[in-house]
Amino acid sequence: MNYQGATGYLFGLQKFGMKFGLDNITRLLAAFDGPHRTFRSVHVAGTNGKGSTAAMIESVLRTGGIRTGLFTSPHLVSFTERIRVNGEEIPEEEVVNLAAEVRQVAEDMDDFFPTFFEVVTTMAFLYFRKMHVDWAVIETGLGGRLDATNVIHPEASVITLIDYDHREFLGNSLAEIAGEKAGIIKQHRPVISADQPEDALHVLSDRAAALDAPLLVYGKDFFSEVVSDEPGSVIFNYVGTRRYNAVTLPLAGLHQVTNASLAAKAVEVIQENHPALKLDIIKGLSQVCWPGRLEMISDDPPVLIDGAHNPHAASVLAAHLRRLLDSQFKRIIAVFGIMGDKDIRGILQPLLPVANEIIVTAPTYGRAATPAALASLTASLGYKAKSSPTVAEAIGLAKSLCREGDLIVVTGSFYTIGEAKEVLGHPGVLTRLRE
Predict the structure, then answer these.
(1) Could you state, in order of their start, the residue ranges of all structural domains in the chain?
(2) Among 159, 205, 271, 412, which lies 20 to 30 A Cα-Cα from 434?
(3) Does the predicted model carry a pTM greater than 0.85?
(4) Nearest Cα to 95, choosing from 79, 74, 75, 116?
(5) Between 3.30.379.10, 3.30.420.40, 3.40.1190.10, 1.50.10.10, what CATH number should domain 3-286 receive?
(6) Can you give the pLDDT of all 435 residues of the chain as single tens digits?
(7) What is residue 156's three-state secondary structure?
(8) Residue 400's CB: how many other CB atoms inside 10 A?
(9) Helix spans in 274-370 (H)
(10) Which residues have a Cβ under 8 Å from the Cβ of 335 and sit 6 or more positions away?
(11) Which CATH number is 295-423's, of 3.90.190.20, 3.90.79.10, 3.90.170.10, 3.40.50.2000?
(12) Distance between CA 330 and CA 60 in Å, rounded?
């Protein structure tokens, strides 16, 4: 299969949408003799922070000399961001080769129609096997219980903060959503959790008890305290199995301290169960890189991107912007592009009060809310927005409004901020391969 055929296959899978269940992925991996059984793993689920937490765990493992894999989604600019070995993105030619390989096997199976995410998950596991990965950190795509990644038997499961998102798939209550996330907990394997809302924690506790899985909860079994909060980094002390002082995390936002603490506890659990490993939490966290979260992508003019796509993430971003207004900037020019199936009102409500100029737009993606719909909802909340049909035009408008002391903020969806990075000079590979 040539390049065009392989990429066309992946593009074509996207029209079938999402489908939950483990039957397809189990059949597909069995046809390849179980590549997911060739490496140890850590599984990460949650509503917010799971990508950051996964990246932090991987960074600590990698800096400890372990050959690592990292599987995350979605990507910001390049599809190759999703699959990494030792911190390096999968080469484009490997994407083409693996897509062709999976397609041939899938099309030889009777009555078999895998989804985009099932195929990509299989490609990741095949690549990890080919590259002789020792440990892989695997982020769930959506939920956990029926997510295609939930075929692994991890050394530890990590569940970041649970909040409302994807209600049409995961449920309308925190208990229901937590039940889906709790599906990644495995018998006798430790689970590390954020300090969850009571309803969610109750579900996790019951599931862990039923599986005799040790449950370690942030704020109860391990702790952290902030030392300093700078525009591009935070310093904190961590207390778990042992105490680590002045841990430097080169990511912006106080919320990352919780994610880093979850990562540190996961590493401590791994170290306890595999004492031959020599893992340095301070070194590993100090070298983590995770774009798209409170990331400054331009200095002239200043442009910050953040993938806040649900109310909790929007509230975290709003709090960070208030700190920036107190210390560094005079005005915020906000560019919003949000998916139509999200809680748009809940995303806009905490952010509109900190914005001096509001621009609404839409990324090139079928689920995106129209600028007209965003403008109408913004008006119903008492604010006036300018509209731009594309992200490129929205950024152009924001630049024309920007003056000394202003900060342009692009947010509302990972699709929106990914396009913003492209517009501002970050070329991508297979950028439109989004499920």
Answers:
(1) 3-286, 295-423
(2) 159
(3) yes
(4) 79
(5) 3.40.1190.10
(6) 667 777 788 888 866 656 678 999 999 999 999 999 999 999 999 998 999 999 999 999 999 999 999 999 989 999 999 999 999 999 999 999 999 999 999 999 988 889 999 999 999 999 999 999 999 999 999 888 999 999 999 999 999 999 886 555 566 789 999 999 999 999 999 999 999 999 999 999 999 999 999 999 999 999 999 999 887 899 999 999 999 999 999 999 899 999 999 999 999 999 999 999 999 999 999 999 999 989 999 999 999 999 999 999 999 999 999 999 999 999 999 999 999 989 999 999 999 999 999 999 999 988 899 999 999 999 999 999 999 999 999 999 999 999 999 999 999 999 999 999 999 988 888 877 765
(7) strand
(8) 8
(9) 281-286, 311-327, 344-351
(10) 359, 360, 361, 391, 394, 395, 398, 408, 409, 410, 411, 416, 420
(11) 3.90.190.20
(12) 37
3-state secondary structure of 319: helix
